[in-house]
## 1
Amino acid sequence: QVQLVESGGGSVQPGGSLRLSCRVAGSIFDFNYMGWYRQAPGKQRELVASITRGGSINYADSVRGRFTISRDNAKKEVYLQMKSLKPEDTAAYYCNRVGATWPWGQGTQVTVSS
């Protein structure tokens, strides 16, 4: 019954910014350790940022200093503020819990190009 709904993606020039949102809908009992993942064509899905219920955060080296993950536990939402975007950030972005994932949502496409 869990639905993951990502939004906020789009096309942006290098150096631009986007803010992604993830809404976790449905009956859940474990909205705890959440993350943002991305998958580029021909590549495996990778975890780029994670955040615990209490706000402890980790980033992949590729995005550290440029991306900021946050969450609203009351709304069951997770956010990803992306700045200084690079072409290599181009991917479909997904949210999910870290560890035992729920079924994946549709994701939101981020395209960074000139």
Note: The chain has a mean pLDDT of 96.
## 2
Amino acid sequence: QVQLVESGGRSVQAGGSLRLSCLFSGRAFSTYGMAWFRQAPGKEREIVAASSESGHLAYYVDFVKGRFTVSRDIDKKTMYLQMNSLKPEDTGVYYCAADPRGGYWSGSYYPKNKVDYDYWGQGTQVTVSS
């Protein structure tokens, strides 16, 4: 099976930057669709960004577009989320998720709901102060 471990979360001032890492333990990392979710206090977990099979395509929700970048290092079996121009509303627990059916993602489609992902990390806290 697959295990995911996030790291890199911390407290940062608004306008600052962070890079989160998700280490994938298992086989065939490149065949999984991967995603970053976040959950703010009192809110539902929501998708932030996703990375298609082999990391060929990146997807972003509107509220992070232009500020966040998702990438993969296949050799290190690690997915990253570079977060720039952070805002207080970015505060939350960030989760790494993996979809073993990543090969079925289309060029324009990617799963956006948490139920679409089979594997999850424990989360890493990001706090952005104003």
Note: The two ends are 40 Å apart (CA to CA).
## 3
Amino acid sequence: EVQLQASGGGLVQAGGSLRLSCAASGFTFDDYTIGWFRQAPGKEREAVSYFSNTDGSTYYADSVKGRFTISSDNAKNLLYLQMNSLKPEDTAVYYCAIAEGRYYYIHLYPPSFDYWGQGTLVTVSS
């Protein structure tokens, strides 16, 4: 079965950095779009970044461009989100997710994500 386990969250001061990790099992990253979402208190869940292993297309939310970087170690089925220059508004529960099937041009055509991890809490203090 598909399982996703996010980790690496914690408390950090504004301007600091964290790296989130997502360990996946039950599938191979090569066949999917993989990504990160977040949900802040009182707000809707939003996409942070995702990457298509089909065509290499990548999406970043405008709010994180230049600060966050998505990467993966496909051989180990590990997904990462490097978060730099953190701001209080980055405070949220962060979820890793996958979209099964082959997707193209995902920066233009968002895929439908099918599986979700349990989330890891990131708190950024001012």
Note: The chain has a mean pLDDT of 94.
